[in-house]
Design a protein that fits this description.
It is globular, with a radius of gyration of 20 Å. It contains 13 helices and 15 strands. The strands form 4 sheets. The protein has an 8-stranded parallel β-barrel, surrounded by 7 helices. Helices cover 40% and strands 20% of the residues. Bound molecules: beta-D-glucopyranose (BGC).
């Protein structure tokens, strides 16, 4: 028995990001951060999944899933290795990838900035430098112009709220600064401006493509006295949700709930399973809650896309159960009139999980760290079945 069907046009997808899978992205701020002494980064990205060379292996896996879209990012530091200097070879590489996807009936969804910033841009202050707005817009225009014939959708910035918080408040991402509220706020202002400028650039260079932003969200719940903390946390997301007016979609990216008390996040709660390698609760229902909050915040003006959702829990059945529950929460949103156009599982591959290194495994596909041999997990086959049926089954198989 089925518990509900998704709309016929519902866009199933999976995702990756350049630095997490390509390997050898030596010209950006993350590479430096991974190799700097004394940082909290577990290990360097190195060869990652070797996807720069093995992208056709990835394509076979994407095709095998039956998704309608594949979300991946282009690496700014490869395309523009020095200010104004353009790599036609790198651009052709991404163009071939887009064309191959289109050929396979899969819509490329291209993210223009997924956490990594070219070394040259960082030297000038990175996201705290107002000049980055124009630089990013120029880069976007160029990419959109070249990829336009095959790319149906662009995401401007991936989770700018995470870049700002991790980079300037928590010191976990480059530039590795902690508690610098002024720089954080400046980076946020510049990222909002960069998003708006990039939307204009895409519209000028690729008028038929959709364009939008992706935001990292959590389901903030409270114990008495935690309301102000929850509101403060939501505000860091709202500043970007409020910057989406006129966009074609909002990319909602959700991994967990956070229970807030008077002093902030209370951490994982007793009795709630934990995604061990990430240190947060295994809480799939967070997705529906965040979709509803986004829809309410933006007044139902802009369609929503789940551009990331998934888990690093690799125990038997854990991933399947997670996605099953998350999808049920999406169905409930659809029934209530929330316009959710698609669902993207993060990630296609076990890949480089930033400061956590290779320990967390979000992939539908295991990647051998030495040979780069890709092996689909049970959840890969299960998710392919969901996509083929356009529905969520009652019965769950293993993970
Ligand atoms: C990021 C991904 C990351 C994922 C899982 C998102 O915040 O966009 O790059 O791998 O979460 O932590």
């Amino acid at each position: 028995m089925n518990i509900g069907a998704f709309p016929t046009e519902f866009e199933w997808s999976t995702a990756t990001a350049a630095h997490q899978i390509e390997g050898g992205n030596t010209n950006n701020d993350w590479w430096d951060w991974e190799h700097a002494p004394g940082t909290p980064v577990a290990e360097p990205s190195g060869d990652a999944c070797n996807s720069w060379l093995q992208w056709t292996d990835d394509l076979d896996l994407i095709r095998g899933l039956g998704v309608r879209s594949y979300r991946f990012s282009v690496e700014w530091s490869r395309l523009e290795p020095a200010p104004g200097e353009w790599s036609n070879a790198a651009c052709d590489h991404y163009l071939r990838q887009c064309e191959a996807l289109v050929e396979a009936g899969i819509r490329p969804t291209v993210t223009l900035h997924h956490f990594t910033t070219p070394r040259w841009a960082v030297r000038n202050g990175g996201w705290t430098d107002p000049d980055i707005v124009g630089r990013f817009a120029e880069f976007t225009h160029r990419v959109a112009e070249r990829l336009a014939p095959s790319v149906g959708r662009f995401c401007t910035l991936n989770e700018p709220n995470v870049v700002a918080a991790m980079g300037y408040l928590m010191g976990l991402f480059p530039p590795g600064v902690a508690n610098d509220r002024a720089s954080h706020d400046l980076a946020v202002t510049n990222m909002v401006a960069a998003h708006r400028a990039a939307v204009d650039a895409v519209r000028a260079a690729a008028p038929s493509a959709e364009v939008g932003l992706t935001v990292n969200m959590a389901d903030y719940q409270t114990v008495p006295g935690g309301e102000a903390q929850a509101a403060e946390a939501e505000a860091t997301e709202n500043v970007f949700l409020d910057a989406t007016d006129g966009d074609d979609f909002i990319g909602v990216q959700v991994y967990t709930r956070m229970l807030m008390g008077p002093d902030g996040w209370l951490g994982p709660q007793p009795g709630v399973p934990v995604v061990e390698t990430m240190g947060y609760e295994y809480w799939p229902d967070a997705l529906g809650a965040c979709l509803r909050r986004t829809w309410a915040r933006t007044g139902g003006r802009i369609p929503l896309l789940v551009t990331e959702n998934g888990t690093a829990s690799d125990g038997p059945g854990e991933r399947t159960r997670f996605v099953h529950a998350a999808l049920k929460s999406v169905l409930a949103c659809l029934e209530d009139g929330v316009d959710v156009r698609g669902y993207t599982y993060w990630s296609l591959l076990d890949n480089y999980e930033w400061a956590f290194g290779y320990q967390p495994t979000f992939g539908l596909v295991h990647v051998d760290r030495t040979t780069f041999v890709r092996t689909p997990k049970d959840a890969y086959h299960w998710f392919a079945g969901v996509i083929a049926a356009n529905n969520v089954p009652d019965q769950l198989s293993g993970d």
